[in-house]
Task: inverse folding
């Protein structure tokens, strides 16, 4: 019986070791690669305003209102946590953003992925396995995009309300280095494109939180079971 239980435990660990997303319940999904927790509802603002005005009925808002909404969310300690934020973008070269356009994720601006350097890019391309509008052929301009079959938000996984419209983008917390006018990085879940936008646009917010905030401690019964197994092993050795 002991061997069967140990085998089952080992099998469970083997199944989960390569998983990227964990449904923690209560509307929380943990990404163990980026070590962040996503709201399962990708448009919570459409149903919960936290007392913030000027949020559109569809949940979209300009950047200033988005910052207010995140602040109000933290003031209320939504789901007992108070460090919610908008998704992050980091330069893929680790130094500074490359705003040249590319279709293969080789720069920060355009289509193609960005691996862990873009939290929403990683969600779209890796976690959900969607394809960008443009064939990842290394083109230096989205104007010469070769549209690939099967592009778009075809898989939303266990998430709800990811906004797929052609003009419905998501805010990030990072400034886009644009000469002359203040821009912020945003992500387009319709085409799979990351680029810069002016803060007056009405976009959406998908709140995230650092760490695994939805993890449930092992129940006391499980600890007692483990302790009992250790006790049996110790007893066996003592009588051997």
Result:
């Amino acid at each position: 019986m002991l061997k069967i239980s140990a085998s089952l435990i080992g099998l469970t660990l083997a199944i989960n070791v390569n998983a990227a997303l964990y449904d923690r319940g209560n509307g929380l999904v943990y990404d163990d690669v980026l070590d962040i927790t996503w709201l399962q509802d990708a448009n919570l603002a459409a149903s919960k305003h936290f007392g913030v005005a000027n949020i559109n009925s569809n949940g979209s808002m300009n950047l200033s209102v988005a910052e207010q909404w995140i602040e109000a969310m933290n003031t209320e300690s939504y789901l007992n946590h108070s460090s919610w934020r908008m998704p992050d973008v980091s330069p893929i070269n680790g130094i500074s953003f490359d705003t040249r356009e590319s279709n293969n994720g080789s720069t920060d601006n355009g289509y193609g992925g960005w691996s862990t350097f873009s939290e929403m890019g990683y969600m779209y391309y890796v976690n959900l396995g969607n394809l960008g509008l443009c064939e990842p052929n290394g083109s230096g301009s989205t104007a010469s995009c070769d549209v690939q079959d099967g592009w778009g938000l075809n898989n939303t996984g266990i998430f709800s309300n990811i906004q797929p419209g052609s003009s419905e983008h998501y805010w990030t917390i990072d400034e886009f280095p644009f000469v002359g006018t203040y821009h912020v990085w945003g992500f387009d879940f319709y085409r799979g494109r990351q680029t810069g936008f002016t803060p007056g646009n009405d976009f959406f917010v998908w709140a995230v939180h650092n760490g695994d905030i939805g993890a449930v401690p092992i129940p006391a019964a499980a600890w007692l079971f483990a302790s009992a197994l250790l006790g049996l092993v110790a007893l066996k050795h003592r009588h051997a």
Q: What stands out?
A: The CA atoms of residues 47 and 95 lie 38 Å apart.
